[in-house]
Amino acid sequence: MEKRVLACIDGSPYSPAVCDAAAWAALRLDAPLKFLHVLHREKNKPPTDLSGSIGLGARESLLEELAALDEKRSKLALERGRQMLAAAKQRARTAGVAEAEGLQRHGGLVETLSELAEGIRLLVLGKRGEAAEVAAEHLGSHLERVIRSLHRPMLVTTSEFRAPQTVMLAFDGSATARKGLEMVAGSPLFRGLPCHLVMAGAATADTRAQVANARQTLEAAGFDVPSTILPGEPEAVLSQYQQENDIDLMIMGAYGHSRIRQLLIGSTTTEMLRKSAVPLLLLR
Fold first, then answer.
1. 4-43+76-157 maps to which CATH number?
2. Mean pLDDT score of the chain
3. Is pTM, for the whole model, over 0.90?
4. Residue 63: its pLDDT value, please?
5. CATH architecture, domain defined by 167-283
């Protein structure tokens, strides 16, 4: 099975950026592109029996009208999704993608993506969904579940996407970070772009050696690699470095610790997702 770039779209303000990010990635990876729209079960449930709520003596015609209204809403949601997929495919073609597919599914987003996981090379989704304008300070309701459930690279975009000119790899020496290092070195996604290598923490002999080895791996793959170790909390120093160096995209491992530990000290991944002003490529 040829793996593809899969992009999740909905009616949110983030969908155009998702389309642009997915088209950019598909072209860089020379991979097929597919857009996914999921109709959630709660929005398309069977007509509800409201006879008890309406009360005794309710006209049968009123119940029929309510059932017809449920059916109409379901059909409108289906058509709206089809139009969004058509618009996404057209946007991708305008960006230079020769052909893009569309897929519409009923069900839950996490469950649907789990079913499709084997065919995903890169998953692209927005930081927030359709309720973004209502709760702009929060992440999308499904985002953390998707990231925790799928062991696939995920590009989480902000409300605007521009083709990166410089990227940054947040490196902590962990197994996930080393895996991410190898992916960056071997993938065409960032080839030809400067890749800043940044570690948050104390500059010890061990951390300096880890950064030096990582830098050599990237340089051997042809990257220009500015590197540094910055003291302080990762969320703060990584964000500051990104702003000061005009980094267009950050790469980091996702949820490297247990939920219990995160309850005690918090999650760097969640904080970076909340605060980052640029897209994040998350690696599991």
1. 3.40.50.620
2. 85
3. no
4. 76
5. 3-Layer(aba) Sandwich (3.40)
